[in-house]
């Protein structure tokens, strides 16, 4: 076992001192090659003890005490007359730690600061760890990038920015630039002629830099930024035309509304449709029974069904049923679930709020009640196409008819994100937005027209800047961990090499 971990050494003795295992060992070979002329020598000059620290084992420190030999070099043309035997698979020359331990430290440094690691180790300073990190700098071989994402990050917010570039196919960062100006970004793109697609946000600097570097590169506008920008425009309209909050009477039709299928009902309905499809193709009932492992009576019933099945359950008494009258009255008054729960707790209700909350939610679907809504809730209801929000959406559109136009624009904008979207579809949406006579929407439509090629590719291609945004967050975390020592070269090592 020791030969596997120490292939170049022969272990003579193993001692345990306090919380440290000490291995006494020496080299296996009788000769050693000169590091300068590579000629082997057998003449021993002297010996000395070399101490190395290795990775911990079972919570104990490991110390290697190696009896290293110095040899005479007999090559007359060699500049070195005496040399020390090397152990290349174990450690670097003059190092006090094994390669195995250094790799472990580098893995830890990829996710935490040197100061934080120093507090854990207690025997290595943060400066030593940083020197180890800088010395380990190496550029791993990466394929020539074809599809990249580009975004900026802040050295100092609103003052100075850098640029991060990621390979969207390998999902790895590949470049960290000191600024985001057109000249710097353009020079980097020109140095990588294999790039065919670049995903970016709406930055004018990045757009111009890519165009100057190579006009044949496809620029893809990030879809999240498109949604975010439209959401900001709608927020501006709501701020100008609606009060911050208002009360409305919500009259949900929860008792008569068609409830959604459960997972079990959905699986059963899928099986029924499959059985019916096989039957239409001429498969006999005997084969349907064997193929789908169902009973003959069940098979005939499935063939006659025209609606999804509803799995009914017997009603079980809820712990809050005895307070149902009070809860309905409070719902009509617009009381919050937390307020009702605290009041019932004082009356002796023993269950938790996680049990009480679904009960109140079911009652709210059937009881007309007043609710407080603000602009944020209205924007969320307009944006999200949720069946549970339909009664509230209908009520809001009745109170504020101008929101019908915004609702239709949001829905049609979301429908643009498909492979079949053409430039004419986008221009049609821009015309509809300008007809709404809202300045923020007109401004957004003008922006789309000015960058329509990149926006169309952003709607139709699968590439986006989501992974790049994640790497920006990682970069910010690492930068803050290192306090004032986060220079560009050190950031490059931690972001690009130690990944």
Largest sheet: 5 strands, mixed
Q: Helix coverage percent of residues?
A: 40-55%
Q: Give the integer mean of the pLDDT values.
A: 87
| Contiguous helical run count | 21
Q: Using the alpha-carbon principal axes, give the shape.
A: extended
Alpha-carbon distance between the two ends: 31 Å
Structural class: alpha+beta
The oligomeric status of these chains comes to: single chain
Q: What percent of residues are in strands?
A: 15-25%
Overall radius of gyration: 35 Å
Unreliable parts: 254-258
- Number of E-state strands: 14
How would you describe this protein?
The protein is an alpha+beta fold and 499 residues long. Helices cover 46% and strands 19% of the residues. It contains 21 helices and 14 strands. It has helices at residues 2-5, 99-109, 114-121, 126-135, 182-190, 204-213, 223-241, 263-280, 285-292, 296-304, 324-333, 337-347, 353-364, 375-383, 390-399, 403-415, 423-435, 439-450, 452-460, 466-481, 488-497, and strands at 9-17, 20-27, 32-33, 40-41, 44-57, 60-72, 82-84, 147-156, 160-167, 172-177, 197-200, 218-221, 245-250, 369-374. The strands form 4 sheets. Strands 1, 2, 5, 6 and 7 form a 5-stranded mixed β-sheet that branches. The chain has a 5-stranded mixed β-sheet with strand order 10-9-8-11-12, with helices on both faces. The chain has a two-stranded antiparallel sheet with strand order 3-4. A hairpin with a 2-residue loop joins strand 1 and strand 2. Helix 7 crosses helix 14 (375-383). It is extended. It starts with a helix and ends with a helix.
């Amino acid at each position: 076992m020791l030969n596997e971990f120490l292939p170049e050494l022969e272990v003579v003795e193993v001692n345990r001192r306090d919380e440290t295992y000490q291995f006494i060992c020496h080299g296996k070979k009788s000769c050693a090659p000169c590091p300068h002329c590579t000629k082997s020598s057998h003449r021993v000059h002297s010996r000395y003890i070399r101490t190395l620290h290795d990775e911990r084992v079972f919570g104990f420190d490991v110390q290697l005490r190696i009896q290293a030999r110095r040899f005479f070099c007999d090559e007359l043309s060699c500049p070195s007359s005496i040399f020390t035997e090397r152990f290349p698979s174990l450690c670097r020359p003059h190092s006090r730690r094994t390669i195995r331990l250094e790799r472990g430290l580098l893995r830890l440094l990829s996710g935490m600061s040197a100061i934080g690691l120093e507090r854990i180790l207690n025997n290595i300073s943060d400066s030593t760890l940083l020197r180890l990190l800088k010395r380990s700098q190496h550029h791993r071989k990466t394929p020539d990038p074809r599809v990249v994402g580009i975004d900026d990050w802040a050295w100092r917010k609103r003052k100075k920015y850098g640029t991060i570039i990621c390979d969207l196919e390998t999902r790895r960062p590949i470049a960290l630039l000191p600024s985001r100006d057109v000249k710097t970004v353009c020079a980097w793109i020109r140095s990588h002629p294999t790039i065919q697609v670049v995903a970016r946000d709406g930055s004018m600097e990045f757009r111009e830099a890519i165009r100057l570097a190579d006009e044949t590169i496809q620029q893809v506008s990030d879809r999240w930024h498109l949604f975010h920008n439209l959401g900001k425009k709608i927020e501006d309209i709501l701020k100008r035309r609606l009060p911050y909050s208002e009360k409305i009477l919500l009259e949900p039709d929860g008792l008569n509304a068609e409830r959604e299928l459960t997972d079990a009902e959905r699986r059963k309905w899928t099986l029924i449709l499959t059985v019916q499809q096989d039957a239409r193709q001429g498969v006999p009932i005997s084969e349907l029974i064997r193929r789908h492992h169902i009973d003959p009576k069940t098979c005939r019933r499935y063939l006659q069904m025209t609606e999804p099945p509803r799995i009914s359950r017997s009603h079980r008494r809820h712990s809050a049923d005895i307070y149902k009258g009070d809860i309905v009255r409070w719902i009509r008054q617009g009381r919050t679930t937390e307020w009702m729960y605290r009041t019932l707790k004082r009356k002796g209700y023993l269950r938790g709020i996680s049990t009480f909350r679904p009960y109140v939610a079911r009652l709210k679907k059937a009881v007309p009640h007043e609710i407080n809504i603000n602009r944020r809730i209205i924007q969320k209801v307009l944006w999200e196409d949720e069946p549970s929000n339909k009664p509230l959406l209908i009520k809001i559109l009745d109170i504020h008819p101008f929101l019908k136009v915004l609702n239709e624009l949001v829905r049609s904008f979301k429908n643009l994100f498909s492979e079949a979207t053409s430039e004419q579809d986008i221009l049609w949406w821009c015309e509809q937005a300008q007809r709404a006579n809202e300045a923020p929407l007109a401004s957004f439509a003008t922006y789309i027209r000015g960058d329509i090629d990149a926006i169309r590719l952003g709607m139709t291609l699968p590439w986006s800047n989501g992974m790049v945004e994640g790497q920006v967050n990682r970069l910010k975390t690492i930068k803050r961990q290192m306090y004032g020592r986060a220079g560009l070269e050190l950031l490059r090592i931690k972001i690009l090499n130690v990944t």
